[in-house]
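call fold target=Aminoglycoside phosphotransferase domain-containing protein
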Amino acid sequence: MPTFIPRLHTSRCDPSSLNPLTAEQLDSRADEFVRAIDLEAVRALASSYNDGSPCRIDEMATARGSFNVCFFAKFDDRTWVVRIPIMPVIHDAWGKLQSEVCTMRYIQENTQIPIPRVHAHGQAQLSHDNSPKQAFMILDQIEGQQLVERQLLASSEEHRRRFYSELIDIYTQLRSLEFSAAGSLMPAQPQGSASAPVIVGAFSIPINELKIQGYSPQPSLSRSTAEFMSQQRRLLRDFYLLPTQSLDRQTAELELFALHSVGQIPVAVDRQHEPFVLSHTDLRWSNIMVDHELHIVGIIDWEWAGTVPASNLIPPSWITVSGHYFAEFRSVLASKYASSPHSKLLSEWNCEYTITSWVIEIFRNPHHLVSIFYTFIYPKIFTEPRQEVVPEYFCRRQKQLELKRLLQSSERHTKYLIENNLFIDDDDEEGRRAIIGVQVRKRRRVVTYIK
Protein backbone atom coordinates (compact mmCIF):
# COMPACT_ATOMS: atom_id res chain seq x y z
CA MET A 1 0.00 0.00 0.00
CA PRO A 2 1.49 3.37 -0.98
CA THR A 3 2.66 5.69 1.77
CA PHE A 4 0.80 8.91 2.54
CA ILE A 5 2.65 12.24 2.96
CA PRO A 6 1.55 15.88 2.69
CA ARG A 7 2.90 18.44 0.26
CA LEU A 8 3.97 21.82 1.60
CA HIS A 9 1.83 24.81 0.65
CA THR A 10 2.41 28.52 0.63
CA SER A 11 0.47 30.81 2.94
CA ARG A 12 -3.22 31.36 2.36
CA CYS A 13 -5.00 34.65 1.78
CA ASP A 14 -8.53 35.79 1.05
CA PRO A 15 -9.20 34.85 -2.60
CA SER A 16 -11.64 37.75 -2.98
CA SER A 17 -8.77 40.19 -2.35
CA LEU A 18 -6.75 38.97 -5.34
CA ASN A 19 -6.62 40.35 -8.87
CA PRO A 20 -6.56 37.18 -10.99
CA LEU A 21 -4.55 37.13 -14.16
CA THR A 22 -6.73 37.59 -17.21
CA ALA A 23 -6.99 34.96 -19.91
CA GLU A 24 -5.10 37.31 -22.21
CA GLN A 25 -2.23 37.62 -19.73
CA LEU A 26 -2.02 33.85 -19.35
CA ASP A 27 -2.30 33.35 -23.09
CA SER A 28 0.48 35.84 -23.75
CA ARG A 29 2.81 34.22 -21.21
CA ALA A 30 2.10 30.76 -22.59
CA ASP A 31 2.71 31.94 -26.17
CA GLU A 32 6.01 33.50 -25.14
CA PHE A 33 7.08 30.29 -23.39
CA VAL A 34 6.31 28.12 -26.43
CA ARG A 35 7.98 30.53 -28.88
CA ALA A 36 11.15 30.45 -26.79
CA ILE A 37 11.55 26.66 -27.07
CA ASP A 38 14.66 25.72 -29.05
CA LEU A 39 13.71 23.01 -31.55
CA GLU A 40 17.33 22.04 -32.06
CA ALA A 41 17.65 21.47 -28.30
CA VAL A 42 14.49 19.34 -28.40
CA ARG A 43 15.87 17.32 -31.32
CA ALA A 44 19.20 16.78 -29.56
CA LEU A 45 17.41 15.75 -26.37
CA ALA A 46 15.36 13.09 -28.15
CA SER A 47 18.42 11.80 -29.98
CA SER A 48 20.42 11.54 -26.75
CA TYR A 49 17.87 9.13 -25.28
CA ASN A 50 17.94 6.92 -28.40
CA ASP A 51 21.68 6.12 -28.43
CA GLY A 52 22.46 9.23 -30.44
CA SER A 53 20.36 8.12 -33.43
CA PRO A 54 19.58 11.02 -35.76
CA CYS A 55 16.06 12.40 -35.87
CA ARG A 56 14.18 15.45 -37.05
CA ILE A 57 11.40 17.47 -35.45
CA ASP A 58 8.22 17.50 -37.54
CA GLU A 59 7.25 21.14 -36.95
CA MET A 60 3.94 20.78 -38.79
CA ALA A 61 2.85 18.05 -36.37
CA THR A 62 3.54 20.12 -33.24
CA ALA A 63 0.51 19.94 -30.97
CA ARG A 64 -0.32 22.38 -28.21
CA GLY A 65 -2.97 21.86 -25.56
CA SER A 66 -4.01 23.81 -22.49
CA PHE A 67 -1.08 22.66 -20.37
CA ASN A 68 1.51 21.04 -22.67
CA VAL A 69 3.18 21.40 -26.04
CA CYS A 70 4.20 18.23 -27.89
CA PHE A 71 7.00 17.93 -30.44
CA PHE A 72 7.30 14.84 -32.64
CA ALA A 73 10.83 13.49 -33.07
CA LYS A 74 10.95 11.25 -36.14
CA PHE A 75 13.63 8.54 -36.26
CA ASP A 76 14.07 6.07 -39.12
CA ASP A 77 12.07 3.37 -37.34
CA ARG A 78 9.89 5.19 -34.81
CA THR A 79 8.42 8.46 -33.66
CA TRP A 80 8.78 9.78 -30.14
CA VAL A 81 6.78 12.55 -28.52
CA VAL A 82 8.70 15.15 -26.52
CA ARG A 83 6.08 16.63 -24.20
CA ILE A 84 6.89 19.88 -22.40
CA PRO A 85 4.60 21.39 -19.74
CA ILE A 86 3.76 25.04 -20.43
CA MET A 87 5.20 26.45 -17.24
CA PRO A 88 3.33 29.80 -17.06
CA VAL A 89 -0.01 27.98 -16.69
CA ILE A 90 1.15 25.24 -14.28
CA HIS A 91 1.96 25.95 -10.65
CA ASP A 92 4.43 23.07 -10.19
CA ALA A 93 5.33 21.73 -13.63
CA TRP A 94 8.13 19.45 -12.43
CA GLY A 95 6.13 17.98 -9.57
CA LYS A 96 3.12 17.38 -11.81
CA LEU A 97 5.27 15.68 -14.44
CA GLN A 98 6.93 13.41 -11.85
CA SER A 99 3.48 12.40 -10.62
CA GLU A 100 2.28 11.67 -14.14
CA VAL A 101 5.30 9.48 -14.93
CA CYS A 102 4.92 7.64 -11.63
CA THR A 103 1.21 7.08 -12.31
CA MET A 104 1.82 5.80 -15.83
CA ARG A 105 4.50 3.36 -14.68
CA TYR A 106 2.27 2.15 -11.85
CA ILE A 107 -0.52 1.52 -14.36
CA GLN A 108 1.83 -0.37 -16.68
CA GLU A 109 3.07 -2.54 -13.81
CA ASN A 110 -0.38 -3.31 -12.41
CA THR A 111 -2.89 -3.26 -15.28
CA GLN A 112 -3.34 -4.01 -18.97
CA ILE A 113 -4.59 -0.49 -19.75
CA PRO A 114 -2.99 0.66 -23.04
CA ILE A 115 -0.87 3.76 -22.43
CA PRO A 116 2.27 5.09 -24.16
CA ARG A 117 5.62 3.94 -22.84
CA VAL A 118 7.70 6.64 -21.13
CA HIS A 119 11.32 6.50 -22.31
CA ALA A 120 12.68 9.39 -20.27
CA HIS A 121 11.74 12.39 -18.19
CA GLY A 122 13.67 15.13 -16.48
CA GLN A 123 14.63 18.79 -16.71
CA ALA A 124 16.80 20.32 -19.43
CA GLN A 125 17.63 23.66 -20.98
CA LEU A 126 15.27 23.66 -23.95
CA SER A 127 14.73 27.39 -24.34
CA HIS A 128 16.52 30.08 -26.32
CA ASP A 129 16.44 32.43 -23.34
CA ASN A 130 18.07 32.11 -19.94
CA SER A 131 14.97 30.82 -18.17
CA PRO A 132 15.20 27.91 -15.71
CA LYS A 133 15.37 24.39 -17.11
CA GLN A 134 12.18 23.00 -18.61
CA ALA A 135 10.51 19.78 -17.50
CA PHE A 136 10.05 17.20 -20.24
CA MET A 137 8.77 13.71 -20.91
CA ILE A 138 9.70 11.51 -23.88
CA LEU A 139 7.19 8.82 -24.79
CA ASP A 140 6.06 6.64 -27.66
CA GLN A 141 3.65 8.00 -30.22
CA ILE A 142 0.47 5.93 -30.20
CA GLU A 143 -0.67 4.72 -33.60
CA GLY A 144 -4.28 5.80 -33.86
CA GLN A 145 -6.37 8.94 -33.68
CA GLN A 146 -8.12 10.85 -30.95
CA LEU A 147 -11.74 9.85 -30.50
CA VAL A 148 -14.19 12.35 -31.99
CA GLU A 149 -17.95 12.33 -31.69
CA ARG A 150 -18.65 12.05 -35.40
CA GLN A 151 -16.64 8.82 -35.51
CA LEU A 152 -18.67 7.37 -32.66
CA LEU A 153 -21.94 8.43 -34.28
CA ALA A 154 -20.96 7.02 -37.67
CA SER A 155 -19.77 3.67 -36.30
CA SER A 156 -21.80 0.50 -36.33
CA GLU A 157 -23.56 -0.63 -33.18
CA GLU A 158 -21.13 -3.55 -32.98
CA HIS A 159 -18.13 -1.22 -32.94
CA ARG A 160 -19.73 1.15 -30.44
CA ARG A 161 -20.63 -1.63 -28.03
CA ARG A 162 -17.12 -3.07 -28.27
CA PHE A 163 -15.72 0.41 -27.59
CA TYR A 164 -17.92 0.77 -24.49
CA SER A 165 -16.88 -2.71 -23.36
CA GLU A 166 -13.19 -1.83 -23.64
CA LEU A 167 -13.79 1.46 -21.81
CA ILE A 168 -15.60 -0.37 -19.00
CA ASP A 169 -12.69 -2.82 -18.77
CA ILE A 170 -10.35 0.16 -18.29
CA TYR A 171 -12.54 1.52 -15.49
CA THR A 172 -12.69 -1.92 -13.91
CA GLN A 173 -8.89 -2.12 -13.83
CA LEU A 174 -8.65 1.36 -12.31
CA ARG A 175 -11.24 0.33 -9.72
CA SER A 176 -9.03 -2.61 -8.72
CA LEU A 177 -6.17 -0.29 -7.69
CA GLU A 178 -7.07 0.58 -4.09
CA PHE A 179 -5.32 3.09 -1.81
CA SER A 180 -5.66 4.39 1.73
CA ALA A 181 -5.95 8.11 0.98
CA ALA A 182 -6.82 10.68 -1.67
CA GLY A 183 -4.09 12.47 -3.58
CA SER A 184 -1.56 11.96 -6.37
CA LEU A 185 1.09 9.28 -6.82
CA MET A 186 4.77 10.20 -6.53
CA PRO A 187 7.86 7.97 -6.67
CA ALA A 188 9.23 7.02 -3.25
CA GLN A 189 12.69 7.66 -4.73
CA PRO A 190 13.49 10.11 -7.56
CA GLN A 191 14.11 7.46 -10.22
CA GLY A 192 12.73 4.46 -8.38
CA SER A 193 10.16 1.88 -9.40
CA ALA A 194 6.53 2.91 -9.39
CA SER A 195 5.56 -0.29 -7.56
CA ALA A 196 5.68 1.47 -4.19
CA PRO A 197 4.73 5.13 -4.74
CA VAL A 198 3.87 7.61 -2.02
CA ILE A 199 0.65 9.60 -1.97
CA VAL A 200 0.98 13.39 -1.86
CA GLY A 201 -1.49 16.24 -1.98
CA ALA A 202 -3.45 16.13 -5.20
CA PHE A 203 -2.40 17.74 -8.45
CA SER A 204 -5.73 18.73 -9.98
CA ILE A 205 -6.99 21.26 -12.49
CA PRO A 206 -9.03 23.27 -9.92
CA ILE A 207 -6.12 23.40 -7.45
CA ASN A 208 -3.72 24.38 -10.22
CA GLU A 209 -6.04 27.16 -11.37
CA LEU A 210 -6.28 28.58 -7.86
CA LYS A 211 -2.51 28.44 -7.33
CA ILE A 212 -1.76 30.08 -10.68
CA GLN A 213 -3.86 33.00 -9.45
CA GLY A 214 -1.80 33.30 -6.27
CA TYR A 215 -4.14 31.48 -3.90
CA SER A 216 -2.96 28.43 -1.98
CA PRO A 217 -5.76 26.04 -0.96
CA GLN A 218 -5.56 24.08 2.26
CA PRO A 219 -3.58 20.79 2.05
CA SER A 220 -5.50 18.43 -0.23
CA LEU A 221 -5.26 15.23 1.80
CA SER A 222 -8.11 13.10 3.11
CA ARG A 223 -8.63 9.58 4.41
CA SER A 224 -12.42 9.36 4.20
CA THR A 225 -15.08 10.18 1.64
CA ALA A 226 -16.58 12.78 3.96
CA GLU A 227 -13.22 14.56 4.31
CA PHE A 228 -12.66 14.41 0.56
CA MET A 229 -16.08 15.85 -0.30
CA SER A 230 -15.72 18.57 2.32
CA GLN A 231 -12.40 19.55 0.84
CA GLN A 232 -13.84 19.66 -2.68
CA ARG A 233 -16.63 21.96 -1.47
CA ARG A 234 -14.04 24.31 0.02
CA LEU A 235 -12.10 24.36 -3.24
CA LEU A 236 -15.30 25.11 -5.16
CA ARG A 237 -16.14 28.03 -2.86
CA ASP A 238 -12.57 29.35 -3.07
CA PHE A 239 -12.81 29.16 -6.85
CA TYR A 240 -15.92 31.34 -6.92
CA LEU A 241 -14.56 33.82 -4.40
CA LEU A 242 -11.89 34.76 -6.93
CA PRO A 243 -13.06 38.06 -8.44
CA THR A 244 -14.33 38.19 -11.99
CA GLN A 245 -14.97 41.27 -14.06
CA SER A 246 -18.41 42.91 -14.35
CA LEU A 247 -20.28 40.35 -12.27
CA ASP A 248 -24.01 41.10 -12.33
CA ARG A 249 -26.37 40.52 -9.41
CA GLN A 250 -28.42 37.74 -11.03
CA THR A 251 -25.36 35.67 -11.88
CA ALA A 252 -23.90 36.20 -8.41
CA GLU A 253 -27.17 35.03 -6.82
CA LEU A 254 -27.26 31.92 -9.01
CA GLU A 255 -23.66 31.07 -8.12
CA LEU A 256 -24.00 31.59 -4.37
CA PHE A 257 -27.26 29.64 -4.17
CA ALA A 258 -25.73 26.77 -6.15
CA LEU A 259 -22.67 26.77 -3.88
CA HIS A 260 -24.90 26.64 -0.81
CA SER A 261 -27.05 23.82 -2.21
CA VAL A 262 -24.08 21.71 -3.29
CA GLY A 263 -22.69 22.11 0.22
CA GLN A 264 -25.88 20.66 1.69
CA ILE A 265 -25.90 17.43 -0.33
CA PRO A 266 -24.87 14.67 2.11
CA VAL A 267 -22.45 11.82 1.57
CA ALA A 268 -24.20 8.45 1.63
CA VAL A 269 -23.58 6.59 4.90
CA ASP A 270 -22.46 3.43 3.10
CA ARG A 271 -19.69 5.42 1.39
CA GLN A 272 -18.07 6.81 4.51
CA HIS A 273 -15.39 4.10 4.62
CA GLU A 274 -15.02 3.16 0.97
CA PRO A 275 -11.54 2.66 -0.53
CA PHE A 276 -9.72 5.20 -2.65
CA VAL A 277 -9.05 4.18 -6.24
CA LEU A 278 -7.07 5.57 -9.16
CA SER A 279 -8.94 7.90 -11.52
CA HIS A 280 -7.86 9.59 -14.74
CA THR A 281 -10.15 12.58 -13.85
CA ASP A 282 -9.97 14.08 -17.37
CA LEU A 283 -11.14 11.37 -19.76
CA ARG A 284 -12.44 13.68 -22.47
CA TRP A 285 -12.81 12.58 -26.10
CA SER A 286 -9.31 13.70 -27.07
CA ASN A 287 -7.62 11.64 -24.36
CA ILE A 288 -8.93 8.36 -25.80
CA MET A 289 -6.98 7.05 -28.80
CA VAL A 290 -8.77 4.61 -31.12
CA ASP A 291 -8.25 2.85 -34.43
CA HIS A 292 -10.65 2.93 -37.40
CA GLU A 293 -12.84 0.23 -35.80
CA LEU A 294 -13.08 2.03 -32.44
CA HIS A 295 -10.67 -0.29 -30.64
CA ILE A 296 -9.09 1.67 -27.81
CA VAL A 297 -5.35 1.74 -28.53
CA GLY A 298 -4.31 4.18 -25.82
CA ILE A 299 -5.34 6.43 -22.96
CA ILE A 300 -3.21 9.57 -22.79
CA ASP A 301 -2.66 12.67 -20.61
CA TRP A 302 -2.53 11.24 -17.09
CA GLU A 303 -1.17 14.51 -15.67
CA TRP A 304 -4.18 15.16 -13.41
CA ALA A 305 -4.77 11.53 -12.41
CA GLY A 306 -5.17 10.84 -8.72
CA THR A 307 -6.71 8.65 -6.08
CA VAL A 308 -10.33 9.41 -5.22
CA PRO A 309 -13.12 7.71 -3.26
CA ALA A 310 -14.47 4.74 -5.23
CA SER A 311 -17.81 6.54 -5.61
CA ASN A 312 -15.98 9.35 -7.44
CA LEU A 313 -14.82 6.98 -10.19
CA ILE A 314 -17.59 7.77 -12.67
CA PRO A 315 -18.03 7.48 -16.46
CA PRO A 316 -16.97 10.43 -18.65
CA SER A 317 -19.52 13.24 -18.68
CA TRP A 318 -19.74 13.17 -22.48
CA ILE A 319 -21.34 9.74 -22.11
CA THR A 320 -23.64 10.54 -19.21
CA VAL A 321 -25.10 13.79 -20.60
CA SER A 322 -26.28 11.98 -23.73
CA GLY A 323 -29.32 9.79 -23.27
CA HIS A 324 -28.38 7.65 -26.28
CA TYR A 325 -24.73 7.16 -25.33
CA PHE A 326 -25.56 6.45 -21.70
CA ALA A 327 -28.32 3.94 -22.52
CA GLU A 328 -25.98 1.97 -24.78
CA PHE A 329 -23.15 2.25 -22.24
CA ARG A 330 -25.39 0.95 -19.42
CA SER A 331 -26.61 -1.88 -21.60
CA VAL A 332 -23.04 -3.05 -22.22
CA LEU A 333 -22.19 -2.69 -18.53
CA ALA A 334 -25.23 -4.76 -17.54
CA SER A 335 -24.22 -7.48 -20.00
CA LYS A 336 -20.86 -7.78 -18.24
CA TYR A 337 -22.47 -8.20 -14.82
CA ALA A 338 -21.57 -11.90 -14.59
CA SER A 339 -17.90 -10.99 -14.21
CA SER A 340 -17.04 -10.27 -10.56
CA PRO A 341 -14.94 -7.14 -11.20
CA HIS A 342 -17.63 -5.72 -13.43
CA SER A 343 -20.41 -6.53 -10.95
CA LYS A 344 -18.64 -4.41 -8.33
CA LEU A 345 -18.48 -1.49 -10.73
CA LEU A 346 -22.10 -2.00 -11.76
CA SER A 347 -23.34 -2.03 -8.17
CA GLU A 348 -21.41 1.16 -7.36
CA TRP A 349 -22.62 2.99 -10.45
CA ASN A 350 -26.13 1.62 -9.90
CA CYS A 351 -26.74 2.01 -13.63
CA GLU A 352 -27.91 5.59 -13.16
CA TYR A 353 -26.44 9.05 -12.84
CA THR A 354 -27.24 10.37 -9.37
CA ILE A 355 -27.14 13.84 -7.84
CA THR A 356 -23.81 12.94 -6.27
CA SER A 357 -22.42 12.10 -9.72
CA TRP A 358 -23.31 15.57 -10.97
CA VAL A 359 -21.71 17.10 -7.88
CA ILE A 360 -18.52 15.21 -8.73
CA GLU A 361 -18.65 16.69 -12.24
CA ILE A 362 -18.89 20.16 -10.71
CA PHE A 363 -15.89 19.50 -8.48
CA ARG A 364 -13.84 18.48 -11.52
CA ASN A 365 -15.05 21.40 -13.64
CA PRO A 366 -15.89 24.27 -11.27
CA HIS A 367 -16.67 26.74 -14.06
CA HIS A 368 -19.64 24.49 -15.00
CA LEU A 369 -21.27 24.96 -11.59
CA VAL A 370 -24.24 27.04 -12.75
CA SER A 371 -25.06 25.05 -15.88
CA ILE A 372 -24.78 21.62 -14.22
CA PHE A 373 -26.54 22.59 -11.00
CA TYR A 374 -29.60 24.26 -12.52
CA THR A 375 -29.93 21.79 -15.40
CA PHE A 376 -29.40 18.46 -13.63
CA ILE A 377 -29.46 18.93 -9.83
CA TYR A 378 -31.97 21.67 -9.07
CA PRO A 379 -34.97 19.85 -10.67
CA LYS A 380 -34.27 16.80 -8.48
CA ILE A 381 -34.33 18.63 -5.13
CA PHE A 382 -36.72 21.57 -5.69
CA THR A 383 -40.29 21.60 -6.99
CA GLU A 384 -40.69 25.39 -7.18
CA PRO A 385 -39.12 27.35 -10.06
CA ARG A 386 -35.69 28.81 -9.34
CA GLN A 387 -37.05 32.30 -10.11
CA GLU A 388 -38.95 32.00 -6.81
CA VAL A 389 -36.53 29.96 -4.69
CA VAL A 390 -33.29 31.83 -5.36
CA PRO A 391 -34.56 35.37 -4.56
CA GLU A 392 -36.22 34.08 -1.37
CA TYR A 393 -32.88 32.65 -0.24
CA PHE A 394 -31.36 36.13 -0.38
CA CYS A 395 -34.06 37.68 1.80
CA ARG A 396 -31.92 36.75 4.80
CA ARG A 397 -29.56 39.47 5.95
CA GLN A 398 -26.53 37.18 6.19
CA LYS A 399 -26.97 36.08 2.58
CA GLN A 400 -27.47 39.67 1.46
CA LEU A 401 -24.13 40.59 3.03
CA GLU A 402 -22.44 37.64 1.34
CA LEU A 403 -23.88 38.71 -2.00
CA LYS A 404 -22.80 42.31 -1.41
CA ARG A 405 -19.21 41.24 -0.67
CA LEU A 406 -19.04 39.19 -3.86
CA LEU A 407 -20.33 42.07 -6.00
CA GLN A 408 -17.99 44.56 -4.32
CA SER A 409 -15.07 42.24 -4.99
CA SER A 410 -16.01 42.18 -8.68
CA GLU A 411 -16.36 45.98 -8.77
CA ARG A 412 -12.90 46.41 -7.22
CA HIS A 413 -11.35 43.95 -9.64
CA THR A 414 -13.09 45.49 -12.66
CA LYS A 415 -11.77 48.93 -11.64
CA TYR A 416 -8.27 47.44 -11.37
CA LEU A 417 -8.54 45.96 -14.86
CA ILE A 418 -9.72 49.24 -16.36
CA GLU A 419 -7.00 51.28 -14.65
CA ASN A 420 -4.32 48.89 -15.91
CA ASN A 421 -5.70 48.57 -19.47
CA LEU A 422 -6.53 44.91 -18.89
CA PHE A 423 -10.32 45.13 -19.18
CA ILE A 424 -11.78 43.15 -22.09
CA ASP A 425 -15.36 43.81 -23.09
CA ASP A 426 -17.50 40.67 -22.98
CA ASP A 427 -18.29 40.94 -26.69
CA ASP A 428 -14.57 40.99 -27.51
CA GLU A 429 -13.82 38.28 -24.97
CA GLU A 430 -16.09 35.76 -26.69
CA GLY A 431 -13.61 35.30 -29.50
CA ARG A 432 -10.58 34.85 -27.32
CA ARG A 433 -9.06 31.56 -26.27
CA ALA A 434 -8.63 30.84 -22.54
CA ILE A 435 -5.66 28.79 -21.38
CA ILE A 436 -7.36 27.91 -18.11
CA GLY A 437 -10.85 28.51 -16.83
CA VAL A 438 -10.47 30.77 -13.79
CA GLN A 439 -10.72 34.23 -15.29
CA VAL A 440 -12.91 33.31 -18.25
CA ARG A 441 -15.81 31.52 -16.61
CA LYS A 442 -18.17 32.79 -19.32
CA ARG A 443 -20.69 33.51 -16.55
CA ARG A 444 -23.31 35.29 -18.60
CA ARG A 445 -23.20 32.67 -21.31
CA VAL A 446 -23.67 29.89 -18.74
CA VAL A 447 -26.67 31.67 -17.23
CA THR A 448 -28.22 32.13 -20.66
CA TYR A 449 -27.83 28.40 -21.26
CA ILE A 450 -30.04 27.49 -18.30
CA LYS A 451 -32.84 29.97 -19.02
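return ok
Confidence is low (pLDDT under 50) at residues 3-11, 428-451. The first strand starts at residue 3 and ends at 4.
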